[in-house]
Structure formats: C-alpha cells, structure tokens
Write a structure and sequence with these properties.
Pfam family, one: FBPase
Order of helices and strands: HHEEHEEEEHEEEEEHEHEEHEEEH
Organism: Dyella psychrodurans
Distance between the termini: 53 Å
Oligomer: single chain
Radius of gyration: 20 Å
Bound molecules: 1,6-di-O-phosphono-beta-D-fructofuranose, magnesium ion
Catalytic activity: beta-D-fructose 1,6-bisphosphate + H2O = beta-D-fructose 6-phosphate + phosphate
EC number: 3.1.3.11
CATH class of the largest domain: Alpha Beta
Strand content: 15-25%
Number of strands: 17
Subunit structure: Homotetramer.
Structural class: alpha+beta
CATH architecture of the largest domain: 2-Layer Sandwich
Shape: globular
CATH topology of the largest domain: Fructose-1,6-Bisphosphatase, Chain A, domain 1
Helix content: 25-40%
Number of helices: 8
Strand order of the largest sheet: 4-3-5-6-7-8-9-10
C-alpha cells in the first residue's frame, strides 16, 4: 500500500470534518518544528548542543541548552503562521502572545519543548509534548487564565519521540495515530492508525528510588506487583523506567504497560512532579484515545479544573485494568470505596 504522509492524513481528517483548516495547518507547523528539533538533538556531542544552558526556568529547574533551543524553534515556527493567539511553554513563566505584526488565529498551543532533558547528555530518547486548545471568544491577548481549560476541551494533543527513529503520535479525539519520520523523504509517514493499548499488562514504569516517600496505597499496589506470582496478584510483573515520559508512554502505546508518577512526601507540597497543562493532559488524551486510562490515582486527569499554567499533578496512565486497580486502592485508602 502507498505510504500516507502526515499532510495526506490531515487532508483526510479535514474531508471527514474532524479538523478545520486552521488546526490542520497548526499541526503541520508543529510537526515541521519538531523535525528541526530532531536535527538539533541528533547533532550530539559534536554539535555544541549538549550540556547546561546556565539558566533556570520558572520552576527552578536548570535548563539544558536543548531545552532552550527546542523552545525557540517551537516559538519561532508558530509565531507567524496565523493559527495561534498565544503559546505557553514549560520554559516560560507566562504565555507568549503572537506579535502584533503577525496574523492571529483562534488556537492556544502549550508545549513541553524537550521532555526528559536530563537524558539528553547520555544519548537516551527525549521528546516534545504538545496540547492545542481553543482561544476563548473575544480574547485577543490571551493570559494564563485563558489556558486553564479542562483536558476534555483539548482539540488535539501529540508528542514526538527523538529516539532511534523520530516518531509523532497524534490525536484529534478520534483515535490515536503514529507517524514515523522518513529522513530521506523528509516527511512524517503514517505507521499505525487507531492504536489500541492492551487492557491488561505485566509491565510497569515508576521511579523506584522514591518508594519510601510514597503514600500507603501506592506502597501496597507496587508491593503486590513486586511479590509476583507468589503474591496476591498471582503473576510476575516486569519493570521498565526510561525517565523520559515520552519514551515511557511510547512503550505503553506500543506494547501496553502502566506509568506512574505518584504523589510522594518530597513533592506533596507541589502537588506532584508532572505538569498538567503540557505533560499530563496531552498524554491522558492520547492514552484514553488509544483505549487506556489516565488518573491522578483518585480522579480522571482530563476532568480536573486546572488552577495554574505550571500546576503539577500525580499521573497514573496506561493499560486500563491496572490503572483501575491502582486507583481503586487509593480510593479505598481515602474511604471513598468499600
Ligand atoms: O528522574 P525523575 O525525577 O524521577 O523525573 C523523571 C520525569 O521527569 C521528566 O523528565 C520531566 O520532564 P522535563 O524533562 O520536561 O522536566 C519526565 O519526562 C520524567 O518522567
Ligand atoms: Mg517533561
Ligand atoms: Mg521539558
């Protein structure tokens, strides 16, 4: 069968009435920017892109050179296209409006320009995560409050993994689809349509070094997985942890599994580790559209009302049945379930 490019796929989606012209163009612009980020990450140690930028972001995290480069690539690509009213990023305290000299569109774009950036210097997969919202009517200069929409209102979400292959995973709310970058042709090509995450799994991803800080229901759940076939779950479980959320989620999108970044005593005052607007919400949308589940351990992520652009939440996502078990244990511990 003839390969289907991202552009052909977007045309099909437009014909089917699932996206409008502005949104499909926006996705094409984001995908093109991510190709530039892939080129930058590929330069590695001889390209002068590794190491610290010597600056910090709003969240007090040291920025890598590639965090800054990726942020600039996405901002520049999206500034003049006419699809956006404003952008917001992990790397910027406030949203960036589209400059007055450029045409404005009806969309808001949020991104984590480089996810897993602590892995970049050791040549492990990193990625970009993005989410698209509608700009509220009548707002010409969107502020942070205009981005604070529930995950259920997302018009599109996606991520790109810069790994052995560069892969884009995308949803408009009608299934989750994967595109692989054909470097010779220079375009993303449809590699999997309507991805389905198996409901059951024997593989989990979590940073085990935080175990002693977790809440009791998380201790119970992981403890039972570790007990294997002699424990209450009656089977052995395997563990994988890349520490790049994009790569961990991509494994789950490919062969099933579950990913947890739960609350723990060290991060409790912050509300969690991962950020709702540009990490948890887009990943939850992608995973749900692939038949998986995504909760905070207590509530569906997509139903949360965000209160801050850089707000953090606990994240449980992946194969539905396992996410239900882990969430159930938390609700039982809270006394919400019998
Ligand atoms: O190593 P830790 O502290 O457990 O954190 C790992 C998590 O942090 C992240 O790297 C956060 O993303 P950024 O690199 O965009 O800040 C996730 O990708 C990953 O799951
Ligand atoms: Mg991240
Ligand atoms: Mg990041």
């Amino acid at each position: 069968m003839k390969p289907i490019s991202l552009i052909q796929f977007l045309i099909e989606e437009r014909r089917a009435g699932r996206v409008n012209a502005e949104l499909s163009l926006l996705i094409e612009v984001v995908a093109r920017a991510c190709k530039r980020i892939a080129v930058a990450t590929n330069k590695g140690a001889i390209g002068g892109v590794l190491g610290e930028a010597g600056t910090g972001n709003i969240q007090g995290e040291a920025q890598k050179k590639l965090d800054v480069i990726s942020n600039e690539i996405l901002l520049e690509a999206n500034a003049w296209g006419g699809q956006l009213a404003a952008c917001a990023s992990e790397e910027m305290e406030d949203p960036q409006p589209i400059p007055d000299m450029y045409p404005k569109g009806n969309h808001l774009l949020l991104f984590d320009p480089l996810d897993g950036s602590s892995n970049i210097d050791v040549n492990i997969s990193v990625g970009t995560i993005f989410s698209v919202l509608r700009c509220p009517d009548g707002i010409s200069e969107p502020k942070a409050e205009h981005f604070l929409q529930k995950g259920t209102t997302q018009l599109a979400a996606g991520y790109v993994v810069y790994g052995p292959a560069t892969v884009l995973v995308l949803t408009f709310g009608h299934g989750t689809h994967e595109f692989t970058l054909d470097r010779e042709v220079g375009s993303f090509t449809l590699s999997r349509r309507d991805i389905l995450i198996p409901e059951e799994t024997g593989e989990f991803a979590i940073n085990m070094s935080n175990q002693r800080h977790w809440e009791p229901p998380m201790q119970r759940y992981i403890g039972e997985l570790l007990a294997g076939k002699d424990g209450p779950r009656g089977r052995d479980f395997n563990m994988r942890w890349v520490a790049s959320m994009v790569a961990d989620v991509h494994r789950i999108i490919t062969r099933g599994g579950v990913f947890f970044y739960p609350l723990d005593a060290k991060i409790k005052s912050k509300g969690g580790k991962l950020r709702i607007m540009y990490e948890a919400n887009p990943m939850a949308f992608i995973v749900e559209q692939a038949g998986g589940a995504a909760t905070t351990g207590r509530e569906r992520i997509l139903d949360l009302q965000p209160t801050g652009l850089h707000q953090r939440v606990p994240v449980f996502l992946g194969s539905k049945k396992e996410i239900e078990v882990a969430t159930h244990y938390h609700l039982v511990a809270d006394g919400a379930h019998g």
